[in-house]
Amino acid sequence: MIRYTLRCAEGHKFDSWFQSASAFDKLLGVGMVNCAVCGSTDVSKAVMAPSVSSGAAEAEPPADRPLSGEKSPSEQALARFRSHLEKHSDYVGSSFAQEARAIHEGDAPERLIHGEAKRDEAIKLLEDGIPVSPLPFVMNRKTN
């Protein structure tokens, strides 16, 4: 496992763990590395100091707060947003762009949907005035 400090185009800085350096490169190349704050896929490695072990047992740095502790207001808002989407939207998989266009043009019933779209498909939707937005988290795929 390797930990990288990352930074998005908006300047948000965050850490993330990857199986290997090549795994990071592969995930970044297909747009699967997102900013933990804004969801942007325009992410790069930030300058960071290497962690070198001196051989002596080192104490674990204190965490800002335990992971099981109370969530911050932004984490609570994201959890509410995710819960709402899980209850009120349909997963349309890789046909997201086609379904969003059909809904916009009135060829499909109006409803909330989520799924996957390639970057160029999402850009084309936005250029055509069809409102879409990346989610700041990965939704569980619904199966029948």
Provide an overview of this structure.
The protein has four helices and five strands. The two termini are 34 Å apart. The protein has a three-stranded antiparallel sheet. A two-stranded parallel sheet has the order 4-5. Among the domains are: 2-43, no CATH class; 73-127, no CATH class. It is an alpha+beta fold. A hairpin with a 4-residue loop joins strand 1 (2-8) and strand 2 (13-18). It is globular and about 65 Å long. The model has no long low-confidence stretch (mean pLDDT 84).
Tell me, what's the shape?
globular
Q: For the terminal residues, how far apart are their CA atoms?
A: 34 Å
Average the pLDDT over all residues and give the rounded result: 84
Q: So how many helices?
A: 4
Explain briefly what this protein structure is.
With 144 residues, the protein is of the alpha+beta class. It has helices at residues 21-29, 73-88, 96-104, 119-127; strands spanning 2-8, 13-18, 43-45, 89-93, 112-115.
Describe the structure using short key phrases.
alpha+beta, 4 helices, about 30% helix, globular
List the helices and strands and how they pair.
Layout: E1 2-8, E2 13-18, H1 21-29, E3 43-45, H2 73-88, E4 89-93, H3 96-104, E5 112-115, H4 119-127
Parallel strand pairs: 4-5
Antiparallel strand pairs: 1-2, 1-3
